[in-house]
């Protein structure tokens, strides 16, 4: 193992210097039409919307339609974007950036920016720079390849862009070169059986085009002819002077072009390409004119400007440059991705849609507002929220959204609390919104009241919430499918939701309603303490047959993280129970990569729990370090004053240099999980899922802003209550709030009480009022060190504290 760092964090990007040390290191780009996930070796997974997600580059065999999967596996013929390079004098060949020939280059650099990917590779005394970005408003990849001869002798070279297209359709597929478009155009017909499907699909973009700015000297679309006996690792076609100019006729096509060039010493040459789906040749011509007749740099700048909309409301400066970059660049970028395109789904799960809107409160609260209205307009008249939110007129509920889950109502008041903190837009509560199954319109306030009434009604004789075929944990699908099983977590989450709604009622002066909802939450907490406390932690629930699970009597799935975390959030556990459950989490769930979702992981099917027990031990919900659950845990720790422990848990979610080759991921996004089963399968623990779709990021961002840094909103005021960890004795930051900018310094000192200075004047309250939009404020805060006085473990919530 090399002693060199596996990657380097620069000011605005991350640079990886080996294609093999972190072989799955990757990045994702998106716009409102598409998403592209590319790894450092050249493999790529792309999809676009029409209106459902569709592929324009496929695998070699027809695959079933599915959503994005964790721990995506790559293979020789996996879709990719490669460039073969041949020295015409020596006949040496390489593939760039690394696959599929897998020859080590003399130098390799993979640079990840918010808006582009750049590979810089040196082979055959030639420096090749490959740049990838996306169009801003079209489903189109934009590529630029530059070659520079760094030797003292002329170079005769051939460059072969190779873009896999794959098995498009069993009905009709093929490809040819269109000289007038200067493009390889692959065509297909999306398979269908029913006549009605023809009319639904006849506007599909069933063509895939590789469009070039410069005419090639030869081309081929015939995969078998290109590979010959050598395969992709050593294609026969590269041994010939020219490609075969062969079309594909009902064969899985490829797009390969050849450019023969002579480079004098120190001379360079540049090529540009567009790779995109299209409806017809007319659209391909439009793409060509739009992106290849104008400057590549301008399109790059346009896309950068688009992503800059997700800049976020916080910028920090600590002694840790990598942490700074994650919080300032990558975390809000990922939050924005979720809220901007809803994970490129036309029916996002309701819980995901609402929590993604929670994150957007700190990026673009207008999007959050609309999301809440959209979600509530699909509520049923009986108060139930649907399992998915339909975002297109032709969309329908698919996959997991066809399975009844019981938690969707919970997220409404929880996510709205964050929205009101950030905006004080209580006028939203008066807006009238219809139902999905009733023409009557009622206020947002009444919609939430109805949703909470529905939650309260769905309980058993003990006062515990029914689980049906799953709560937040989708694959816990057989606990209550007979109608009797209950969820400890959902009962706790309902209590917390009621408490959050009560606090909103307080804000708008509805004391009676606030008192009523707190009493309902108290009853739920009482039921959990009476029936679900297992002696040292809370169980996960009771099955249809009345068996408690997630308890000390279970050999597998003995303890679950979520009930413990939400017992902290809902103030369910008294001091004695808090001490016991925190000790249990520490000894049974903590790992060097974060807290596992459950332990020990299940190794075989438990028919009274369900599909979660069939998942591979340590993956996803079956005992992974599931970062969404870890974020709940960190937030719960904040709510009981354990800020240092919370920060430590948040830090473990972030990819880092110390164990980069275990996680196999760059620090450019938080994955949905790292492998768990730490004590059962330690050899694989910590490995990243590489899946960037996760509700984690909204909670991490909120936790950092409102709890750790402690600059949260309330009724239009900025509440200053920092709880810096020991790692941050001093930080600088910029916080955007209420249309104003706050330039903030926070430091820890041996003082008895916090001190706040606003624009040079000491103030005796921690609430900044009468904030003027457009104003820039200077804020200096001194936080007592955690060990400086008896109240140090408690939140600094008012000037009167201690």
Care to describe what's here?
This protein is an alpha+beta fold and 802 residues long. The two termini are 53 Å apart. Residues 788-802 have low confidence and may be disordered. β26 (541-542) and β27 form a beta hairpin. The protein has 17 helices and 41 strands. The chain has an eleven-stranded antiparallel sheet with strand order 1-2-9-10-11-12-20-16-15-14-18. Strands 21-36-37-41-38-39 form a six-stranded mixed sheet.
Q: Which key phrases capture this entry?
A:
802 residues, alpha+beta, 6-stranded mixed beta sheet
In short:
By secondary structure, the protein is an alpha+beta fold. The protein is 26% helix and 25% strand.
In terms of topology, how is this protein built?
Blueprint: E1 7-9, E2 14-16, E3 26-31, E4 34-39, E5 44-49, E6 53-54, E7 81-87, E8 93-96, E9 107-112, E10 117-123, E11 126-134, E12 141-149, E13 155-164, E14 173-178, E15 183-188, H1 195-201, E16 207-212, E17 218-222, H2 223-227, E18 248-249, E19 253-263, E20 268-278, H3 281-291, H4 296-307, E21 314-317, H5 321-341, H6 350-360, H7 365-376, H8 411-423, E22 432-434, E23 441-443, H9 444-457, E24 465-466, E25 486-487, H10 488-507, H11 511-531, E26 541-542, E27 548-549, E28 559-560, H12 561-569, H13 575-588, E29 590-591, E30 594-595, E31 598-599, E32 625-626, H14 627-639, H15 643-653, H16 660-663, E33 673-674, H17 696-708, E34 711-714, E35 717-720, E36 730-737, E37 740-749, E38 755-758, E39 761-763, E40 767-768, E41 776-784
Parallel strand pairs: 37-41
Antiparallel strand pairs: 1-2, 2-9, 3-4, 4-5, 5-6, 7-8, 7-13, 9-10, 10-11, 11-12, 12-20, 13-19, 14-15, 14-18, 15-16, 16-20, 17-19, 21-36, 22-23, 24-25, 25-26, 26-27, 28-31, 29-30, 32-33, 34-35, 35-40, 36-37, 38-39, 38-41
Helix pairs in contact: 5-6, 6-7, 6-8, 6-17, 7-8, 8-10, 9-10, 10-11, 10-12, 12-14, 14-15, 14-17, 15-17
